[in-house]
Amino acid sequence: MLAVKIDNLNIFLKRNADFALAGNRDTRQLIGFLLVYWLAWTITVAILSESIVLDSVEQVIWSQTWQWGYYKHPPLPSILMAGLNWLLNGPSIGLTIFAAQGCTVIALIYVWRLARKMLPLHLAITAVLLTSLIGYHNYKPTSFDHNTVSLPFSAAVLYYFYRAIHEPQRILNWLTLGLVAGLAMLTKYSALLVIAGPFVYLIWQNIWSNPFIIRGLFISASIFTLVLFPHVLWLSHHNWLPFSYFYGELNLLNSRFDILGRFFIGQMLPFLPFFIGFFWIRKLSVKQSMPTEVLYINHRDSDWRFLMATLITPNLLALLPTLLNGSFLSRDWVSAFFLPSGILIVKCFFDKYNHQRILANTRHIVWSCQITILLLFAIGKIIYPKVAGLDVRTNFPGKLLAERVSEIWQQHQGQPLNIVIADTWLAGNLLLHTRPEPTALLNNDLSISTWLTQQDLKNCGAMVLTTIETRDSSNYSEVFNHAMAAGSFSLLWGNLPHDYAWAILSPESDAKNCRLNHG
After folding, report:
1. Could you give the C-alpha distances from 267 to 135, 271, 276, 331, in angstroms and in order?
2. β-strand partners of 493
3. What is the DSSP letter of 498?
4. Residues with Cβ < 8 Å from 282, sequence gap 6 or more?
5. Half-sphere exposure of 208 (CA within 13 A, CB side)
6. Which of 359, 358, 363, 354 is nearest to 296 (CA)?
7. What is the mean pLDDT of residues 195-221?
């Protein structure tokens, strides 16, 4: 009898040792996948692109003018980019893509950590790989914007909320939850909808009255408030600018059917690789055939409810304004709301399959899909427009523009270029390629360029740059009338020349030293 027990123990230890070894190997392969993915996107886009998309250009401007808020959004993405610029001598195209795709990688790491709480090892990795196929987690994060930067913080909120409600007596969980929730709100206000999901779960599970949870929620709320406090002060001092902007965006259209139709059709492309991957993984895999002692049997209905609540709640809340009054809804605004999708799909459909076979098939399919997505993006968004001579964002001659502007400025002024008056696109491309970077006055509007004052213009002077078509608009006509020099030039963008008007404002005669010190 003792010999039988020893043999059984040896078999058990051997099986678990093999499983642990496989787990280490599988985890290393997951890390390798994330690193290769990160580098492949960064290098490909950095080498092929001549410029970056508009939202990324906007971050180039905002990160150079550090604030506790901006007229559109809260400040955290710009703060993070400012830190990267300082560390890695930015801004640059490569650094922007590196930062954007880094957000995806960090988000997937948190998805991995959450999946490990709910699933066995092989299925957890499967869930992460499947999640990576959603377009919001691969080709969309070529833009370093608030939607992209919200991914890791939203994923962190879900993970730490899950930990906190399952270990409510541990104060550190609640402290961390309050911190990441506050940082998520400093990234994008829609993070409030992500935070709402776990609260729906608390009510659904009827655990909100647990004394430890009540204490924990109070701790998290306190940290959350402290993190947000500087931004709230900024908002109060600047007439709550982002909310005025947001209200204007909400009312761009007034047809519910038109908005909802555009929204749901717009979701088809980001989710196409996800559903293709799911279909082929399931088709190529076989039902569970592992020994009964290592079968994973899922009795945790609470996990299923957590995933459903955190997936459905923010999406329904995002749709609510459109359903009620026809407010505008962009498909990209919900990009961080689908992070639980891969875990939920795996939990619902893959539990009874051979876990190792599921993971092996997932690796092959996900690698194939990711390579295809990268190639299609590079060809369709960068290479083909360049060869065809199309004037798209990725082949804008930003470097030539910056060189031409610097040349004109040096011909007329003997001092450094400290201020550029231009729209976001032109100003951002100038800052991207000019060293030292000037400061941008966007659209000649001090109300949205809160980092500058009228006195700065008097002390520093400015270079005005706009298109020929907008030269006589209300934003620019006055500065052209008061310029000490003005002119125009053309740049070839695609196969067509584009004309730009410029003007130079000299510092006033009684000007003080320019505080910007870009020289």
Report:
1. 9, 6, 14, 7
2. 496
3. E
4. 349, 350, 353
5. 9
6. 354
7. 93
Neighbours of 492 (CB within 10 A): 12
Helix (H) or strand (E) run with residue 66 in it: none
For residue range 38-76, list pLDDT tens digits in order.
Answer: 999 999 999 999 999 999 999 999 999 889 999 999 999
CB 506 within 8 A of CB 414: no
Q: Rounded to an integer, what distance in angstroms lies between the CA atom of residue 366 and that of residue 280?
A: 10
Q: C-alpha 288: how far from its chain's center?
A: 38
Cβ atoms 281, 358 nearer than 8 A: yes
CA distance 81 to 59: 7
pLDDT band at 517 (very low <50, low <70, confident <90, very high): low
Residue 287 DSSP label: B
Cα–Cα distance, 30 to 36 (Å, whole number): 10
- Which residues touch 316 (CB under 8 Å, ≥6 apart)? none
- Strand 496-505 to 439-442 pairing: unpaired
State the CB neighbour count (10 A cutoff) for residue 246: 15
Query: In 3D, which of 140, 153, 151 has the Cα closest to residue 53?
Result: 140
- What CA–CA distance (Å, rounded) separates 500 from 519? 25
Per the document, the length of the chain is 519
Cis peptide bond upstream of 497, omega within 30: no
Interacting residues of 356 by C-beta distance below 8 A, sequence separation 6+: 22, 122, 290
- The label of the residue with tokens 């550090």 reads 66
pLDDT of 296-319, one tens digit each? 444 468 899 999 999 999 999 999
pLDDT (0 to 100) of residue 300: 66
Alpha carbon of residue 52 to chain centroid: 15
* Token pair 């899950």 in the structure block, residue: 162
For residues 224 and 341, the answer to whether their CB atoms sit within 8 Å is: no
Question: Integer distance in angstroms from the first to the last C-alpha of the chain?
Answer: 86
Residue 60, amino acid: V
What are the structure tokens assigned to 306, written together?
Answer: 């957590």
Find the farthest-apart pair of alpha carbons in the chain and give their distance in angstroms, rounded: 102
Sheet holding 485-493, edge to edge: 439-442, 419-422, 462-467, 496-505, 485-493
Q: Provide the whole-model pTM.
A: 0.91
3-state secondary structure of 456: helix
